[in-house]
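COMPLEX REQUEST
Ligand: uracil
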Amino acid sequence: MNTTILSHPIISHKVTLLRKTDTASKDFRILVSEIATMMAYEATRDLELQDVSITTPLQQMTGKEIAGKKLVLVPILRAGLGMLDGVLTLLPSARVGHIGLARDHETLQPIKYYYNMPKELDKRDVLVLDPMLATGGSASAAIDFLKADGCKRIKLLCVLGAPEGVARIEKDHPDVQIYIAELDERLNEHGYILPGLGDAGDRIFATK
Ligand code: URA
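STATUS: Structure written out below.
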């Protein structure tokens, strides 16, 4: 199983607040951001370290620093943007790529309407940000596009996941580690996660 369900009382508390209908957009945004920071902490637990020689005010020593090139954060537009600042709080030097997906009306296949990534993707760890893992269609397509662009080490961070979405990513991308704050029950007939929190994009950007 490639899925880690973050089990932490502070995350559970914040997710409950997120779910509530009467949580205002300004609070919703802050909560998504705070949860994203905690998720990023967990998702970066296995980052490689290298030795670095430093001088403290008292003596020289060998410290540890994160090895390799800066990570890339890839929010899937638009709701993924809500997680970005929270992850940047922990990883302020990370690069940020953006991906926007729409469905082609004829083929029904996901197409990129926006795609802008930093250079040397093949040498970087990538964290894909998408608060709601519902059918998994967008996340899977985003990962397809990133892999086609050379990405080799990808993790997917979602606040809520439906079993259907988790199964889709595990099947399409068994090499991708998924991090979710809570695993919900199922999707409804409109593709919404139940019990869920509604439309994450609308709640983050106050568009409904
Ligand atoms: N996207 C959302 O914002 N909410 C859902 O429940 C499913 C997909």
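REMARKS: Residues 3-205 form a domain with the Rossmann fold fold (CATH 3.40.50.2020). Residues 46 and 66 are 10 Å apart (CA to CA).
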